[in-house]
Structure formats: structure tokens, C-alpha cells
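WARN no homologs supplied; continuing
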Amino acid sequence: MQPLADSEAGKHAYEPLMLAEPSDAEGTLHVTAPFDQKIIAEVETCNLTHVDSALRVAQKLFRNRDGWIPLHERITILERTVKFMIEERSQLALAAAQEGGKPLRDSQIEVERAIEGVRLCIDTIRSDVGNVIPMGATEASAGRLAFTTKEPVGVVVAVSAFNHPLNLIVHQVAAAVAAGCPVIVKPADDTPLSCIRFAKILQEAGLPAAWCQVVIPNDIPTAEQLVVDCRVSFFSFIGSARVGWMLRSKLAPGTRCALEHGGAAPVILTNDFDTDLAYASILKGGFYHAGQVCVSVQRVYAPRKIAFKFASELARQADKSTVGDPLNPGTDIGPLIRPAEVTRVHQWVLEAVHGGAELLCGGSPLGATCYPCTVLFDPPVDAKVSTAEIFGPVVCVYPYDDLNAAIDVANSLPVAFQAAIFGRDIDTAMRIYDRLDASAVMVNDHTAFRVDGMPFAGLRESGLGVGGIPHTIADMQIEKMLVLNTAGPGA
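OK structure emitted
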């Protein structure tokens, strides 16, 4: 997938994989590069008729049990998918960097993670075969055998986010394929190209086209109808809390769901932390992909006697980052996904500074699309940067006098996801771990650390259910039990 010259950007540059009828598109979505806002592709959008047809196709596949894809065939399809992704890794990385704005070297890492994610799907379904249920321990269960097998839950609808345009699709779509579910996926409007290409790779690997349909709704009501339809068995959502909780409230009875939102990830520094380790890790965790990660480092709590020194050195190192064109090999930090996000982040920073925060680096937009790495010292506790997810390259450092008070502040928000501790004393680290509201706590690592097999779960307003490929596959299947009465008549 190479960038299109201006004269080459045509309506059919990337055709959405829709089986819905009628085939005529409802409209056109212009896909632009976040850095320079140039059109890199156009894709067709769909209307309510297309959505209904896509759901009808998926439901028909699921209801025809004789047509389900056997386990060994799903494994073969996913193995071929890995092979094709390896052969195409450079093009996949370039496409992700172009449409999403993540620096090319980070997009290359994303592609490698996506490949490993498909491998993890294979490993999961190869070995996860159900359970034996104990029988015979009571008179009522004597002479019986019971065990479970795995079946697909039904039609999966996946709505994805822009910030990892290939890897998130693997987490949702490859997991559905592995589970044996027909899947309809709506990628983010900003980054549909990686999703479309992945779906085509699945087809090239042998997946019948109807089993993975990509739809780009032409408006919000159409997208909503895709999700709330009664034919949807499982809804997978990655995106904002406002949208996720709203959609969950409208799901049809019986539709299962998993929601992955964001947080305002806290880091607590103890009195004996390794400074070099903390600087390197927090720089990565706070500014990777311009902070557009749901568990980016956002709030750092440091002992008062060293807090300003730490924040100043963090700012000095952050200020060295090269911000700009994500396709430039020397770029550390790319653009924000849309110019409006640059404006919003800057407004939040200005609000914090006007409220008394000290601006130690950054703090001024770099053109319409980029924002520099920004470090704020001691923003007001009620400022937006202290209370809501920034989703931009801003890290706040707060001094504390009492460790318990710092933990209380870290726990004070309605969001909770991943957190981190930096310190050498294991007893102190364990004490903080026990008291932090988080689904995962990293010790001497940043809050955004993740491997794709680990559980990944937002708490409170940060989400619902548990992500991570094996957990997602489990969500997309049911355990169906068989009980055999071997005792004969009268048992």
C-alpha cells in the first residue's frame, strides 16, 4: 500500500470489503495523512441498507452450522495470514504510519506485534478445547460423564480505534476468526486502510469473504444501527468512554460486549527509585505515539524533595525529541490524529498553566498538526490535565509529602486502568500495589507496558470486560456442555 499521488487518489483506491446489496456506495470517505492533511485514499461508505445486508449475510453464516469453518481450517487460514503479513510487513508499516501518524519505526514494531498476535490466536485455539466436569461424587451424578466444547457465540461486530490501526484490528478481527465467528468490523474513519488490507489478507489466506466484512458507515445513526441490531451476539468496542457506554446502553437484549476505553494513568515514585530507569521509561510511556495511547503515563507523583528536579530533568530530555513527519526515520513523535486534537490539547495545557502549573517544556503547537512533548509541574487538582484523559503528549508531575495521600489522589478519578511504581524496596512497592485502583500495576516499568496475551482491562469508566487476545477469543465463544448418562434406565 503505497502513498497515492494527488492525481491518483481515486474513488476505488481502496474498496471496502462489503457484501451488502445493493452494491452502489452511499458516499466517499477521504482518508488523509495526519501530518500534512493530504488525501492518501478514498473509500466507499455505506447506508442502513448496506448495514442490514451485512448483518443478514453474517447471521445466515452463523445459523448454518454445517457451514461453520472447522478448527483445523481456521488454523490453516491464520497460519497463511502470518506468512502473508511477514511478506508484506514493510508495506503494512508504511500504510499504518501514513494513515495513523505513528512514526514509521514504531509502526514497524506494531506490525511485528500484529503478526505475533495472529500467532497467539493460533496457539490459543489449538490448545483451548473445553473442560471435563467432575461427575460421580454424588449419588445424583453417578454413572454420568460431562464435558464442554467450544462454539462460536454468533455474529461479532467490532468497532475499532485509530491509534493502532493494524494491531487493534488483529485483536478484534483475528480473534473472531479464531473463535469461528462471522465478523463485521467498522474501523476508525481516520484509519480504515490497515483494516481493509488485513481483511483482504485473510481472504487471500483462504477465509471466505463473507466471514469478514468491513463497513464504513456514512453517518453516526448508521454506525449505531450496526451495533444495536438484535442479530449481534458480541460487540467489541475500542474507543472513547462517552461513545462506548452510550452504545452499551442501547444493545439488544442478549448481546454480550467488551468495552476498552482510556484512563489517566498514574505513576508513583518512591524515595529510592532508579532515576535513569524512571526517566527512560516515563519518556517512552508518556510520549510514545504523541501520548495517544489509552494507558499513557499522565500523572507522576514524586516525593516533594526531588519532585521539581525530576520534572525538570524529564522536561530537558523530552525537549530533545524530534517531532514531525512520521515517515521520516529520525522522527520520535508524530502528529496528533486531527488538527482539532492539537487545539484541544493546547487549551488543556493553557488552562493548567493559568491555574498555576509550571510549564517546563513544550506547550506551544508546532503548526496545525503537531504538539511538542510537554511537561507540567504541579497542575491544579481540578484542571482537565489532572482529571481527564489527555490523549496527547503531556505528562504532569505532582509533589507529595505523604505516600498514602499520593495513593489516594491517584485513586480519586472515575477512571482506572494501568498504573506504575518506580522504587527499589519491594515491601514499599507491594504496599502501593495493594492499594492502587488498577487492573495492572507495573513495577519499574511504564504504565503502557503490554504484551498481547496479558489481560487488559479498564475498570470503572475505563471499560468493561477483559481484553487481550486469549481473553477476547474466550468472550467470543461459549462453552457448551454435554452430559452422558451411562448408568442405564432408572439412573
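Confidence is low (pLDDT under 50) at residues 1-22.
OK
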